[in-house]
Write the structure tokens for this entry.
Amino acid sequence: MELTVYLAGEIHSNWREEIKEKAKSLKLPIHFVGPMENHDRSDLIGEEILGEQPDPVFRDAAASSINNLRTEILMKKSDMVIALFGEKYKQWNTAMDASAAINLGKPLILIRPKELHHPLKELSSKASVTVETVNQTIKVLSYIFEEK
């Protein structure tokens, strides 16, 4: 059995690579997908496809519709979602993706530092599992494949 896992969350740090490397080192049969991690490409994809937009609001709207389509398709094809809330960035997209996973009935592992317990308590109560670190996430993933 191979799982497809959507990795939702900020694209400014290497947390995705850390999860992928650790899963690979444990030989977990997981295929990872997620949002466009090239921030400039993500922001400019609307203009790249639809042409120059009249102002930044239209540019953001054009890019958002294409990025939302990508997220919807990849998340629907995924077996589960991992959503990371870090400490550094405002993470509205992570909250949106985690909520979408819940609405789609996808199992959700929510990673959030202890300091974000209170602001994320409702979302955390809807997640399948809430952890504080990438290492704890890997332990959950490993447990899924344990046979004995």
DSSP finds six helices and five strands in the chain.
